[in-house]
Design goal:
The protein has 330 residues and is an alpha/beta fold. The chain is built from 15 helices and ten strands. Helix 2 packs across helix 8 and helix 12 crosses helix 14.
């Protein structure tokens, strides 16, 4: 079990962020066990083809980063974000700046009582070389597997962050914390949840800040392995099912007759917050046309808009939800 003790100041300092390197590292689980990540099968097929065609990638080391059996990944590969929307170059710089002794310790902690895989064991004799080889491999894998899709991925992650921020304002911190995982419990100032059968960690946040990080490839909440790592909970993002879809759902019935097909399509898609660019991709309509229809929906009170970093996200309002409930779309 993972147990974080939080004081009032810790709750007030709770923050949301997404992480390019977290998506890069955790996506290895989907490549290894695609039958457990069926929503990502389109990405798995495309990524395997890209890896097969790639030159110069240390495939052996890449395959050893997510430890067989546990699936644990060395903590230093996924540094806790320092801002809500970090840049991958900044995260990679932090990985390369990791003390080599810590990098080796994190690798050993990930393997726990399991013997290191051959490529890891070979590099472990020189911790600095191990750290740099891992950083180079992670960067090359990012370019092949995640960078081509990052704009789309980030839109889903930002939409989740907006949803949780709205929940925090509406329902309070306890509601947000217990929504992160089916096992999450908030009681007497302590957040408890099951993360992994081999992880038993109880620690106080103690002014270090609790960061909540949505991720697309985790099937349940995860956290760093080491007790000295900054308090972080990564949790499954909402809306993953929309990530690779090529044809959006089409509303039927009275809704298109009432507000028009384009606006009905957009209102239907906004089951979770999304940006103009993401909606344009999913509908096959130009961003300018989507922006025009969203402006009408916003003026009529059917959608709201909020800025997250550099992106404006739209979401259905209560009025929009009631309209869909009163005029079924199927």
């Amino acid at each position: 079990m993972l147990n974080y003790r939080l004081e009032v100041d810790d709750l007030a300092d709770m923050r949301f962020a997404c992480s390019p390197l977290l998506e890069t590292a955790t996506s290895l689980w989907a490549l290894r066990r695609p039958e457990k990540y069926v929503l990502h099968l389109p990405w798995v097929r495309q990524t395997r083809a890209a890896l097969d065609a790639a030159d110069g990638l240390d495939r052996e080391l890449l395959g050893e980063l997510a430890v067989g059996g546990s699936g644990w990944i060395p903590d230093f590969i996924t540094p806790r974000p320092t801002s809500p929307l970090p840049d991958v170059a900044d995260e990679l710089r932090r990985v390369r700046a990791t003390d080599s002794g810590k990098a080796l310790a994190d690798v050993r902690a990930a393997y726990a009582d399991r013997p290191p895989a051959p490529r890891i064991a070979e590099l472990a004799h020189d911790p600095a070389r191990l750290r740099d080889a891992i950083a180079d491999t992670v960067e090359a894998y990012w370019q092949l597997a995640i960078a081509p899709h990052w704009r789309r991925m980030r839109a889903v992650l930002e939409a989740d962050m907006l949803h949780r921020a709205q929940m925090l304002a509406r329902d309070g911190a306890a509601a947000v914390l217990t929504s992160l995982d089916a096992t999450a419990v908030w009681r007497d100032g302590e957040l408890s949840m099951f993360v992994h059968r081999d992880l038993h960690l109880t620690t106080s946040v103690a002014g270090r800040g609790l960061w909540l990080v949505p991720t697309l490839f985790a099937r349940h909440a995860i956290s760093p392995v080491g007790p000295d790592e900054p308090p972080t909970v990564s949790y499954p993002a909402r809306g993953v099912g929309t990530l690779w879809e090529t044809r959006p759902p089409r509303p039927s019935g009275a809704l298109p007759d009432l507000i028009g097909r384009p606006k009905a399509d957009l209102l239907t898609l906004l089951a979770s917050p999304a940006s103009t660019t993401e909606l344009a991709r999913r509908t096959g309509v130009t961003p300018s046309a989507v922006s025009h229809h969203l402006a009408v929906l916003h003026r009529t009170g059917l959608v709201s808009r909020s800025r997250v970093g550099r992106v404006v996200l739209y979401a259905r309002t209560d009025l929009g939800e009631r309209l869909l409930a009163d005029l079924p779309i199927a």
